[in-house]
Amino acid sequence: MASTPTAPLTPLPTLALPMAGAQEHERADAARNRRRLLDAAGRLVAERGVANVTMEAVAAAAEVGKGTVFRRFGDRAGLMNALINHTETDLQEAFLHGPPPLGPGGDPVERLVAFGHARLEMVDLHGEVLRAAESCAEKRLAHPTRGVHATHVASLLRDAGVSGDVQLLTDSLLATLDASLVWHQNHVLGMPLARIADGWTDLVHRVTRC
């Protein structure tokens, strides 16, 4: 990772991807163009910060006309929401259907460690957008995406043989992956992301030690 400032639940179905299904009927060429625009937007956010990314800049970075960006996303808020969906879809697809250790088939503790590392990488790349999206705690905690993460983490804890109040343990674990907290640790306190990732690994091993 780059260094920069209760019974087991049933398997998660594909429809548990609350942010991933909106584009499922897109034509292949439209989906490719959409991903190209979102990849460009993601790069610009990482380079400039979310406040300094404009529709015009995204169009230039993707080498398309400005009208194409507006037709696709409507406005800047629509673009930012789509960027969050884009990055979240990749993460969810990886832990639901990808290869181990993040995806199914691996040891649950290793999967939990991998989930945290993947989330930290996502925050590292798209933390500005995620922080903006998570600025309202009430909406963040009620968002279906967090529900998918919570269901996944709780399922892995149970598969690892963890007893006790799994729901509270799940909430505590997810709190350490909060984008605003990770950004503060990294950019304000000066903790390298590798240190934060090592801390997650240590925390998971302590929680799952039966």
Number of domains: 2
Structural class comes to mainly alpha
Based on CA atoms alone, the radius of gyration comes out at 18 Å
Strands, total number: 0
Global shape: elongated
The overall pLDDT average reads 82
User: What level of helicity do the residues show?
Assistant: 55-70%
Number of helices: 10
Proportion of strand residues: under 5%
Order of helices and strands: HHHHHHHHHH
The oligomeric status of these chains comes to single chain
Q: Could you name the ranges where pLDDT drops below 50 across 5 or more consecutive residues?
A: 1-24
What is the top-level CATH class of the largest domain?
Mainly Alpha
Report the CATH architecture of the largest domain: Orthogonal Bundle
* CATH topology tier name of the largest domain: Tetracycline Repressor, domain 2
State the major sheet. none
Distance between the termini: 28 Å
